[in-house]
Amino acid sequence: MPKTLLLLCGEPSGEAYAARVAEAFRRRFPRVPMEGIGSSRLEAKGVTLLRDYGDISVVGFTEVLKHLPAIRSALSAATERVRRPDVGALVLVDYPEFNFRVGLAARKRGVPVIYYIPPQVWAWRTGRARTLAKFTRGAVVLFPFEETLLRKHGVNAVFAGHPLLEEMEPWRDAAPDPARFGIPEGKTVVGLLPGSRPGEISKHLPILLSAAGIVRERFPGVHFVLPVARASLREAIVARLSGVDLPLTFVDSGRHLAFRGMTAAMAVSGTVTLELALLGVPSVIVYRTSWATYRIGKWLAKVDRIGLPNIVAGETFLPELIQDDCSPDRIAGALCGILSDPARRDGLRERCLALRDRLRGPGPTEAVVDMVAREAAGAWA
After folding, report:
1. What predicted TM-score, i.e. pTM, was given to this entire model?
2. What is the pLDDT of residue 299?
3. How far apart are the C-alpha atoms of 192 and 187, rounded to whole Å?
4. Which CATH number fits domain 4-161+361-380: 3.30.470.20, 3.40.50.800, 3.40.50.2000, 3.40.50.2300?
5. Which of these, 149, 176, 89, 134, lies nearest to 370 by C-alpha position?
6. What CATH number has the domain spanning 170-358?
7. Tens digit of pLDDT for each residue in 180-216?
């Protein structure tokens, strides 16, 4: 019986990448069992779940404290699993505070560890690169500059292209189809992206809805689209819409096609801002967290911008409104500035699309499976 492949992720964007790895691994090794932490998306690819990440998908220092029991339980389950002799390899996807601990435990047992999307040591806590070198056999990174930086610290890092380009291949140049989502013809479509975690939604959705109300006053022909990151979040989102009078459409599936029909968006900082940009949608990038988390992050951070499109471009070409600047008036003002100026909007769109060339490569999913196959060859015999 071949040994088991473990895959661990802690939030929706990471799970999307993990699911592609599971699918590619299954094609190459059809009889190898897979287990991990994820949700139904990973389970659908044949991965037996140790835990659903729903209770541990949190960000921020103070926010983590509220979920410590669930996090400890999941961490205990994962570290206990890697200690068993039937584990052939471990693939960690993002989620560093959790995954580092599991990776170090795996190293003690001699389990080969591949890290897909390692922590952003270029942004803060550079010392983690040395720890990464201690417990990994290889790492597949999101950005070209990460390969150079991590290799300097002894990590076997490879850049093979950004996985979003793989994931969005069918929609990268698809024709917009608003009718598919029930959006009336001739509307200016604006995206509302409040985040993929419950805590992010509770902080950002009320602000974005207030900003949307201001935008509608100035642009009566606007129609808002709110993609739901995962089904379990829908109820929480709907609850916050009570009493809200906006032309608004939910999108539960086909989010990337919905993005293609957007003129602009208001989006919480994260992977989604890069998704939008790669599909040619300029966004106003926003983020608000607890005061304590913000101050600690500000002290530790080594970058002066947080939006991924701006980081990849090396300049802040999309508006960023963070913490106290993340107010309905300022968000609406920034969005209206994009909607009211076609020349500026077209220029932003072209700069967004230009990011594709910076992030192309032979394919990160297969690069991960190649590393696993090479570093744990004996386990799959």
Report:
1. 0.86
2. 40
3. 15
4. 3.40.50.2000
5. 89
6. 3.40.50.2000
7. 999 999 999 999 999 887 888 888 999 999 999 999 9
